């Protein structure tokens, strides 16, 4: 059974559809990349699965014991967010809040999880640094550590390579590949077609109301013969 199943999904703004009758699954261990032009509905789709927005029609179902609040999420960063005045440790610790429901406090287990994920991503030495003083690549690692504090199973990433230099981009792809190899399911919005071809396992392409969903080999093969 799939972790997430989207069936006959209709998405849009203010009741006006931009995506209709969308059907796809996210299975355990997938590395799904969502492609499409600006305005195609990629971020809207992700926000609907996360429960931030509601679909116009259709259904989003969670299986295999998966819960909506167990998805780790890295949104697109604004300039204000990049200048957030908190320490690395504080930013990562906030990723534990989802598991507490309405009780906003942290326990020893949360703090151990933060230390573990900082070490896992090679940024433990940055934990006392101000988030706003970090490079773009370091900030993305911090946000990834924060997302990992919210999940053991599924990560959603919205354009995580945006604004990164080539070295930081490659390093981040390697981190994601390592996490996927460990069993974490990845769903990533991207405009980086080359990076998708080198890393994804599955592709969902949204364009002008049309969709493609399938394995990377099927997508690349179709693209070559288009």
TrEMBL record:
The lineage of its organism: Bacteria, Bacillati, Bacillota, Clostridia, Eubacteriales. Keywords: ATP-binding, Nucleotide-binding, Transport. InterPro entries: AAA+_ATPase (IPR003593), ABC_transporter-like_ATP-bd (IPR003439), ABC_transporter-like_CS (IPR017871), Metal_Ion_Import_ABC (IPR050153), P-loop_NTPase (IPR027417). GO terms for molecular function: ATP binding; ATP hydrolysis activity. Belongs to the ABC transporter superfamily. Pfam families: ABC_tran (PF00005). Residues 4-224 form the ABC transporter domain. SMART domains: AAA (SM00382). This is Metal ABC transporter ATP-binding protein.
